[in-house]
Amino acid sequence: MRQTTGQITRLGSLKTLLQRFAFLSLIALTFALMLIGKADTVFVERTRIAITDAVMPIFRILSQPANAIAVTIANVRELAAIREQNARLRDDNGRLLQWQSIAQRLEVENRSLKALLALIPEPTANFVSARVVGDTGGTFAQSVLITAGTGDGVGKGNVVMTGEGLVGRVMQAGTRSARVLLITDINSRIPVVVGEAGNRAILVGDNGLRPRLLYVGAKTVVVPGDKVTTSGDAEAFPPGLPVGRVARVQDVIVEIEPYFSRDKLQHVRVVDYGLSGILATPSPPSGPKK
Amino acid sequence: MHQTTVWQKLDQQARRGVPVSITIFLLLFSMVPMYVPGVPSLAPMYTLMAVYFWSVYRPDGFGYGAAFMIGILEDLLVGTPLGSTALALLICQWVVLNQKKFFKNRPFLEVWLGFAVIAVGTGILRWLCAGLIGTGRFSPFGDTAGSVVLTVVIYPVIGWLLAWTQMKLMQQP
Fold first, then answer.
1. Does the interface predicted TM-score (ipTM) exceed 0.90?
2. How far apart are CA B45 and CA B157, in angstroms?
3. Which domain holds residue A246?
């Protein structure tokens, strides 16, 4: 009996020892992975793409109910405001018809001027629409997962938009999924122009809801309400894409309210402008070469 | 007779795998867009809740390897620096397993209080890791604090769901 008790005690201490060894080994492995993550970003990026691609079917299924609920709520809201919306649309329609005649006149004028200058037309951008099925949360990283990948023509560096404005850029593209780095992410840097005067600055995310402007000229006057658009510098984004408007100016801090709203991000448009410029991405691209 | 034994073994294995499967499901579910205003900017740490729960109530079904694997999976999917969440989850589990006497047969309120302390520590650790290993820039600490508060506040709901799962799926019929 005493021998059995001794055996149990020995087994217990052996188990504790093994557990301690497992814990210490895994902690060491964690630190090793942290170093690998810093040193070999291509390997880590490929692993991230493979894992995201693998779980994409699960995300597609899991996101269906929330998507359906959001669509139903939006429909009910639209029904409630249908009369008011109808009146507004009628007004808009009248105004837009006036603009249409102006646009048609300008188009004819533009065409004849281009013919006069023998201007080479800019290449047209290709776009793919995709559904947002994964949101990585906002405290430590701000990115979303979408249902289109290299198989659908999406590539690293493509611009991601909604009807309202710029959402971000494709940072990783798998065969059937892609990760979009939002303009609010701490790694995001976008060359922009602010206000009517077109002053240049860099829009920098901080993982919060409102990214900030950096490198605004000392003599530049920025006021709340000023529009922010992409400048086209560094060839990461084409010029003139709507980004947001200035929400708050306090001393040197200029906060921007993006046009797109994160909690309504159901579908996005991924546009390939054929730009090769990449910002704040130290690793070489792993997706298909553009 | 032989077939029954095989089935029984399979059944036992499946039941043993419940904590890990449920935690992975919770991780994937937490990443599904919910279209609720304000929620995406304050993401609760669901995997921390699960790792804490299983470490307190079912340490036999959730080892260090499971915590490590789930942390790495979260880092890869969410985009946080590789190894940072795994480190946080491993330390959480180590603290709980080393304080078995404190957690044994304690009322829920005390277990919740213990979780609050661990959530604060994990929040600070993850914030430090994201800043030091990631970009070299620290995100505003207010968002991390908000995430920690949200994690602590909803722990009872997730804890109740996990307890229910444990009762339904892990107990032998």
1. no
2. 13
3. 125-281
